[in-house]
């Protein structure tokens, strides 16, 4: 029996999932933003300006899209995109750490530039991993996008668990954000590649990746809640982190098992395997026919997906701008919430531990939305003919309810509201790339979905910097850049 290949679609999916697990450093802004604000003596508007450049960097991934679409000798090179992301991560967080540590102070414009570079790395990691996954599993794009986006959403909680296990201060945490994602990406980027998507695969292994993602999310939620309710010792915290590490690494075992199984099947299938493959072909053929009918009924513009439009052609379509507007409202308001969650919590009397817990839990809700939206939208599209844009409308409606709950200032309103907003925010990040690939095709998918993602920082700038930050500073005492109790009542405009 020939040994399994080192690089297959499964190894690419596993390596991409591991990179995604540490790529979401921008979601940890709420953990170190108080240290950044205090060390640089920023007011809330200045801190929101830094947060805005974080949002621009983390969402405006047009450059990464162009680099991902570049195919020298007719073949894409995702590792080049990942290498560029690793360089940006180190180039952004290292000087930021030097500034916060007091070693090399930086003025506000330079700090914004550091944050832009650090956050831009996330788009390079995300684009390489998502585009590779969609091209390797084009018939399950909703599911694999949910997996990739889900692990990215969990990365904030994973990074915070490392921060708490190591008992480091927020300044050292910034240094960790410079080193850890860079090192892991450099180790794994070799395995992330685009492979022949015409080869058959066993869906049970894809389901195993989904199960791992859900397991990690549930485990993290249990650990976070227990840490909030009980006094957990350092030894127990270390054991909990070791278990988390094993769960995060388990996609590697699934990839190895899948590669071994496929290498055996490719050699000489038995008569029983031939019958099983034939049955799978018949089942998938009928499913594909149903899916095609559902797609046609739910979205008349899906025929444009066969045209494989480039970014300029896509921007000439009404669908592009409708999607852009929806994302500006949804993602922009979600970012305005997570960027100001520490300040909102402080206004309501929450402790620093409670607000950092909210930041970690946000990652769980973010994951649940990303993973759930991808899986559920695939299900309803294939079996019920319900288009993904319908779910965009539902998430925007629920998100509005969440913002209203937060603005009420009632007891536990921040917990309840952040759950709804985090879930819907994650849903939109899974639905938007899927809709983009179905409408505009796969050839320039990375560039187009990153162009639509620019709507997120645009909406965040309007709502977070121009609305929330302005009202927060207006309500704060003149000599104190802090707000208590009544400040949140006036943040209803989120």
TrEMBL record:
Residues 9-255 form the Nodulin-like domain. The keyword Isomerase does not apply. The chain crosses the membrane at residues 52-72, 79-100, 106-125, 146-166, 172-193, 205-225, 231-256, 318-338, 389-406, 412-431, 452-472. SUPFAM superfamilies: MFS general substrate transporter. It is found in: Membrane. Keywords: Membrane, Transmembrane, Transmembrane helix. This is Nodulin-like domain-containing protein. It comes from Urochloa decumbens. Its main location: membrane. It comes from the Eukaryota. Residues 310-476 form the NFD4 C-terminal domain. InterPro entries: MFS_trans_sf, NFD4_C, Nodulin-like. One of its GO terms (cellular component) is membrane. It is a multi-pass membrane protein. Pfam families: NFD4_C (PF23262), Nodulin-like (PF06813).
């Amino acid at each position: 029996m020939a040994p399994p290949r080192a690089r297959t679609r499964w190894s690419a999916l596993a390596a991409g999932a591991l990179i995604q697990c540490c790529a979401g450093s921008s979601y940890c802004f709420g953990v170190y933003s108080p240290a950044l604000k205090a060390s640089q003596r920023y007011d809330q508007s200045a801190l929101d300006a830094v947060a805005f450049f974080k949002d621009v960097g983390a969402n405006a991934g047009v450059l990464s899209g162009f680099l991902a679409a570049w195919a020298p000798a007719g073949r894409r090179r995702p590792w080049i995109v990942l290498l560029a992301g690793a360089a940006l991560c180190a180039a952004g967080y290292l000087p930021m750490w030097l500034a916060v540590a007091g070693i090399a102070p930086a003025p506000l414009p330079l700090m914004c530039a550091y944050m832009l570079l650090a956050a831009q790395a996330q788009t390079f990691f995300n684009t390489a991993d998502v585009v590779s996954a969609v091209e390797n599993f084009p018939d399950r794009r909703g599911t694999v996008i949910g997996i990739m986006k889900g692990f990215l959403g969990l990365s904030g909680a994973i990074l915070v668990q490392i921060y708490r296990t190591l008992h480091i201060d927020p300044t050292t945490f910034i240094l960790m954000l410079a080193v850890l994602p860079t090192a892991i990406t450099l180790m794994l980027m070799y395995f992330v590649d685009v492979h022949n998507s015409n080869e058959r695969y066993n869906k049970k292994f894809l389901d195993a990746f989904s199960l791992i993602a859900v397991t990690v999310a549930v485990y993290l939620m249990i650990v976070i809640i227990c840490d909030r309710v009980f006094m957990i010792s350092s030894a127990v915290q270390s054991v909990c982190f070791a278990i988390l590490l094993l769960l995060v690494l388990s996609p590697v075992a699934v990839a190895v098992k899948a590669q071994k199984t496929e290498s055996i099947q490719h050699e000489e299938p038995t008569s029983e395997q031939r019958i099983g493959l034939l049955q799978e072909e018949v089942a998938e053929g009928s499913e594909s026919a149903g899916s095609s009918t559902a797609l046609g009924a739910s979205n008349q513009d899906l025929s444009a997906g066969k045209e494989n439009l480039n970014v300029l052609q896509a921007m000439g379509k009404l669908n592009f701008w409708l999607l852009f507007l929806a994302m500006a409202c949804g993602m922009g308001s979600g970012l305005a919430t997570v960027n100001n969650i520490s300040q909102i919590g402080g206004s309501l009397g929450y402790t620093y531990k409670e607000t950092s817990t909210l930041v970690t839990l946000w990652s769980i809700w973010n994951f649940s939305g990303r993973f759930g939206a991808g899986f559920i939208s695939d299900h309803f599209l294939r079996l019920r003919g319900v288009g993904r844009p319908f779910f965009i409308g539902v998430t925007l409606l629920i998100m509005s309810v969440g913002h209203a709950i937060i603005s009420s200032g009632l007891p536990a309103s921040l917990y309840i509201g952040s759950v709804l907003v985090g879930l819907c925010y994650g849903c939109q990040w899974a639905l938007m790339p899927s809709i983009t690939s179905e409408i505009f095709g796969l050839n320039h998918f990375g560039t187009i979905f990153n162009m639509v993602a620019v709507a997120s920082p645009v909406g965040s700038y309007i709502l977070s910097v121009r609305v929330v930050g302005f009202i927060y500073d207006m309500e704060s005492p003149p000599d104190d850049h802090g707000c208590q109790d009544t400040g949140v009542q006036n943040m209803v405009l989120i």
